[in-house]
Each structure stands twice: as C-alpha cells, then as structure tokens.
Amino acid sequence: MPIKRPPIITGEIYHIVIKAVDRTKLFRDQRDYFRMVHDLFEFNDEKPTSPYYRQEPKHTRTVLVCLEKRHTGRECLVEILAFCLMSNHVHLLIRQLKDNGISKFMRKIGAGYGGYYNKKYKRSGHLFQGKYRIVYIKDDQQLITVFVYIHTNPVALLAPDWKEKGIDKKDLRKIIKFIEDYRWSSYSDYLGKKNFPSLTTRDFLLNEFGVVKEAQRFVNDWLQTKRELADLEQVAIE
To answer: Fewer CB near the terminus (10 Å): N or C of the chain?
Structure first.
C-alpha cells in the first residue's frame, strides 16, 4: 500500500530522501559528490539556471569558489537545514520558503544532476527512483531525531549493522571522528569546521538546540547508548 505523501506547506520542515534506480551508485568519484553539493546550492533559486552549470566542473575547487561567491540576487526556493550524501541516496532536511519550492527544487535536481550523470557515464533514462520520499517534521523532538538520523547515516560505511547490533566501545571514538570528518554531510559545519558553510543554514537549528555542543551531544548519545529516538520509524525512510 503506497505511503500517503504529506501536504507541502511553505514555512514547514521536511525530511527528504532521493535514491538511485536499480541500486545505481549516484556518486562514483569525488567530482560526482562535489557536483551534487554544487547543484544543491545552484538549483536552489527561483530563476533559471545558466547552461554553464550543466557542465562538469573541471576542478573541485570550482565548486567551492561558486558556493562562496554566488549569493547576490538569488531567490531561494528552500532552506537546506541539513544534508548527507551517501553512495546511492541523499538525505535532505529542508524548510520550504516559496509555494511549490520543494517541488521546483527537486525537479531541478532530478533533471540537472541526472543530465550531468547520464552524459558523464554514457547512460540514458531516469537516474532517480520514482518520487522522492518525504516526511513532514511535526515538532521539535522529531526535528532532533531526523537531525541525528541524517548525520549518523555514514556510520554504516564502517559498521553496516550498527543499528541492529550497536557499536563496540573500542570502535566508538573512531566512528565519532569518522562522522565528524565525513566530507559529504553538513555535520562538520554544525561543529564549526566550515566544510560547505554556504550551502546549509545552521542558525535555525542551532537556535533549537541551544548551542553547537547540544547538537554534538544528541549525536554522540545516540551512538553510545542507542537510546530510542522519538518517532524514529517515521523519519527512517531509506
């Protein structure tokens, strides 16, 4: 039975997951990851995108420069509060800023990154798996839950069954360091490391958490104690 999609309301927050078809790897090399980071920034604009941005970046530094410089004159469709890129799917925590903003933004990502990927790897057809999955974040507790859930996703790269079996104490420090240094999520920006600071809006969530240390505490507590998070089943939409 299909899951009923929530109404998309301007000003409200949503957890979105986009997946590749047939277990395809969305990101085969570092340039692909950088391209998606760039696209999340570039396509978050009411205005059409320049054909220049359909080209593959010649150097990863190009992406970082664009993120730092291209702020003026933008009409953002959404506010990206958190993100995490995994090999075959993407997690986003988004607040809609304009009516139909999420829909427009996701269409741009599907066409833009999909077009780039198909051209680069000489494939055809849809890259993403049907409609993106989306969950409405109804309260602060669920907001904290999805923040932790998104940013602990990379743990599976080191310990694939950690959610079922937990984390061995001897591996805990290594795993905490791994997710804090993981390049392709917003977590390090929340810890003040300035990874992709222009892509996400941290202030909204940091105001909810109080301080940076609170965000870190929520994540570390979950890793150490596997304490049950509120409404986990509702945000676990992989």
So the answer is: N
